């Protein structure tokens, strides 16, 4: 299967999952602070890793991923299937992406180095 199809599906799934997260009405998830950082769909379209980031930090993203995986993944999978018109939507695996924390840490180190000079 050509890789450009997988790339297109990755971007489409990222866009649709972002929209679905904003539409969630679950009070346990504060979706205003969550974002889909990237998605990685396997070549056979059976699994998709969804990297979730949070502005509040990595702990908030990890808690949201646990809740998404246990209770909301089935609903999201059904909606993705409808929106992207896929016969079989991939099984979603949510992974916390703490890159925002990493970037903040690196930025702090650079700022400290600038202050020392």
Task: Give a brief description.
The chain has 117 residues and is of the alpha+beta class. The protein is built from three helices and three strands.
Give the fraction of residues assigned to helices.
55-70%
CATH superfamily: K homology (KH) domain
Number of domains: 1
CATH topology, anyone? Answer: GMP Synthetase, Chain A, domain 3
Query: Mind telling me which CATH architecture this is?
Result: 2-Layer Sandwich
The share of residues in extended strands comes to 15-25%
Number of helices: 3
CATH hierarchy, class: Alpha Beta
What gyration radius follows from the Cα positions, in whole Å? 16 Å
**Mean pLDDT over the full residue set:** 87
| Class from secondary-structure proportions | alpha+beta
> In sequence order, what are the helices and strands, one letter per element?
HEEHEH
Tell me the span between the first and last alpha carbons: 53 Å
Q: Order the strands across the largest sheet as they lie in space.
A: 1-2-3
Question: What characteristic shape results from the CA principal axes?
Answer: globular
Q: Describe the biggest sheet?
A: 3 strands, mixed
- DSSP, total strands: 3
Ranges with pLDDT <50 over ≥5 residues?
A: none
Give structural attributes.
globular, 3 strands, 56% helix, 117 residues, 3-stranded mixed beta sheet, alpha+beta
């Amino acid at each position: 299967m050509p890789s450009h199809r997988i790339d297109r599906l990755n971007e489409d799934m990222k866009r649709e999952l972002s929209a679905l997260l904003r539409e969630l009405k679950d009070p346990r998830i504060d979706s205003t602070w969550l974002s889909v950082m990237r998605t990685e769909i396997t070549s056979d379209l059976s699994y998709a890793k969804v990297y979730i980031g949070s502005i509040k930090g990595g702990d908030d993203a990890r808690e949201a991923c646990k809740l998404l995986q246990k209770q909301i993944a089935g609903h999201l999978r059904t909606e993705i299937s409808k929106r992207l018109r896929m016969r079989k939507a991939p099984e979603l695996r949510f992974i916390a992406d703490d890159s925002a924390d990493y970037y903040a840490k690196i930025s702090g180190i650079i700022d400290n180095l600038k202050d020392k000079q």
